[in-house]
Fold this protein.
Amino acid sequence: MKYEKFRAKVKNLPIIDIRYLKLAGEYNHAFKIQLQRWQKKGKVIKLKRGLYVLNSEDRKDNLSRLFISKELYGPSYVSLEYALSFYGLIPEKVVDITCVTTKKTMSFENAMGKFIYQHIKEKYFTGFSEQRDDSNFAYFIATPEKAVVDFLYLNQNRFSGDYKRVLLESFRFQNTDILDKTKMVNYTELFFSSKLEKIIKLLV
């Protein structure tokens, strides 16, 4: 298959899933080799095994990394450092997309960037909403309160001794006035962790 024909077939697909091509009868050994050639030429970008996008010039839509994070590995939602930076709760600009998932911890690195997924239990998998990027594609992101709770829960091992000192010296939170204290407490109670509760009380 020539690239022009392939591009015409998939140009309306934001993400090219090999499973779709297999169902359509388009995937065989010869096509697999051709796909590898297109990757080398930069015509097709591999996100992970079995998942691709066309290069930016040939794609119909501009894909955000937030949308890609949902498609790469799920169920998941954006949280932790990226969400904290997104909401202005920490001063640092975070480049890597950080997410939580009910699946095992995983990371992917491709031409779109680095995507990091940390495992949490299914009963903690809440406190997020569906949003839309500039191309109207959906992605999931934690509320500001849940992003903080997720982050502190997964970093509890960094707290010992004087929790307040650790918060001030190692976690440079800012703009905490935007946080709803009631939501913070409610999310914290999901984790049944007395240590986390103490940390959150100090923060709020």
Notes: The chain has a mean pLDDT of 92.
